[in-house]
Amino acid sequence: MALIPEQVRQQLKDRFETVLTGPVHLTVYTRPGSSRLILPAGVGCATCEDARQMAELLRDAAPEKIAVEVVDVTRDEERALNDGVPDVPTIAVASDSETPRIRFQGLATGTEFPALIDAIERVSRAEHGLREESVTALAKLTEPAEVMVFATPT
Amino acid sequence: MSLANRMALASPQIRAVCVEANEFPYLSNQFRVRGVPHTVINRKASFVGALPEPDFVAAVLEGAGVAVDEPHEAPSGPSTEMTN
């Protein structure tokens, strides 16, 4: 079965055409050529190839707005370290210039797929959509904070 | 997870990481993930379930050690038990 069915790809293409305004940079941190077996942490990568394909399919839905960069962590460990990406696959979503602060670790399928699409659209439109009170409250943060959300495909 | 991403867009201090729990059992075990969504702030504080925006923001600030104006009740929102 296709990673993203043709019908969904067409829907994404139509939607991205009207919704996306600015550029989106997807960085895929991957370990190419890994086995599909699930091995201990740090060894192998069961979904790296699928994650890369998913990022490329999303780019193909709006190639003039979405760019994909693939970082092979076996060759460029320093880059992954600098970007604070400990595990693969990770898809990071950012506008062109910034260090990515929105990441999807593991293959974003099921309930995570709409969140990935939402992140792409919001980054493109620079539109967080939070209430003013929330933005004021978040301005109190003076140190970096990490918010990890564990989810499952179903 | 969408709220966490939106917060990362709104604040340059926030990094949002959506983790596929089944794919990274070492992380799920480390943070004792039994149901989803399970949110962990700065790898210390955590809560389970989906929260409304004001509660989510307050929980993140609290977890990051920022004093919040009103006392925040122990949050618990709708969640789904993990199945493997």
Structure explained in plain terms:
- The complex is a heterodimer of chains A (154) and B (84).
- Chain A is of the alpha+beta class and 154 residues long.
- Helix content of chain A is 36%, strand content 19%.
- Chain A has a single domain (6-138), classed as 3-Layer(aba) Sandwich (Glutaredoxin).
- Chain A has helices spanning 6-19, 48-61, 77-82, 112-125, 132-138; strands at 24-30, 66-72, 90-94, 102-105, 145-151.
- In chain A, helix 2 (48-61) links the parallel strand 1 (24-30) and strand 2.
- In chain A, helix 1 (6-19) crosses helix 2 (48-61).
- The longest helix of chain A is centred in the first third of the chain and has 14 residues, at 6-19.
- Chain A starts with 5 loop residues before the first helix and ends with a strand.
- Chain B has 84 residues and is an alpha+beta fold.
- Chain B has a single domain (2-66), classed as Glutaredoxin.
- Helices cover 31% and strands 23% of the residues of chain B.
- Chain B has helices at residues 2-10, 25-30, 53-63, and strands spanning 14-20, 35-36, 38-41, 45-48, 80-81.
- In chain B, a hairpin with a 3-residue loop joins strand 3 (38-41) and strand 4 (45-48).
- The longest helix of chain B has 11 residues, at 53-63.
- Classes of the chains: A alpha+beta (154), B alpha+beta (84).
- At the A-B interface, strand 4, helix 4, helix 5 and strand 5 of A face helix 1, strand 1, helix 2, strand 3 and helix 3 of B.
CATH homologous superfamily of chain B, by name? Glutaredoxin
State the order of secondary-structure elements of chain A, H for helix, E for strand. Answer: HEHEHEEHHE
CATH topology of chain A: Glutaredoxin
- Widest sheet: strand ordering of chain B: 2-5
Number of helices in the DSSP assignment of chain A: 5
Structural domain count of chain A: 1
- The level 1 CATH classification of chain A is Alpha Beta
Strand content of chain B: 15-25%
Estimate the mean pLDDT confidence of chain B: 88
- Structural class based on helices, strands and sheet pairing of chain A: alpha+beta
Rounded to the nearest angstrom, the distance between the terminal CA atoms of chain A is 18 Å
State the CATH superfamily name of chain A: Glutaredoxin
The Rg value of chain A, from CA coordinates, equals: 16 Å
CATH structural fold name of chain B: Glutaredoxin
Report the helical percentage of chain B. Answer: 25-40%
Flag low-confidence runs of chain A: none
H and E string of chain B: HEHEEEHE
Could you report the average pLDDT of chain A, rounded to the nearest whole number?
A: 91
